[in-house]
Amino acid sequence: MIKYIVLLIAIMLGAIGQLLLKLGIKKINFTNIDLKSFDNILQIFIALLKNYYIIITILLYIIGFCLYLYLLSNFELSKLLPFTSLLYIIILLFSWIFLNEAISSTKIIGTIIIMAGVYIVAIS
User: Which of 66, 105, 106, 124 falls 20 to 30 Å from 45 in CA-CA distance?
Assistant: First the structure.
């Protein structure tokens, strides 16, 4: 049972990380940046490290990675990976709730298909 709780936590950390990454990247101006210049790349890197959304995302991803290592040792990979696709469903909801993104019927159908696939893998 604990491994399923850890799985849910890892998935939620990934979803929260994606949301924070989106919010953080909105605060950085990428217009007119020439990536051929090392100075510009360095400025972007410094701007990313000064952005608390990005820093929190990095920390969440590190924690999530450690949890994922635990999960790999407790699940068959062929069973674990489909469960991680639940991240797409949570991201869809987070995007709608926190970013006011539209949810189309196509997205809903795709989400239902993902949920069906996870269910099929879970019962096997």
Answer: 66
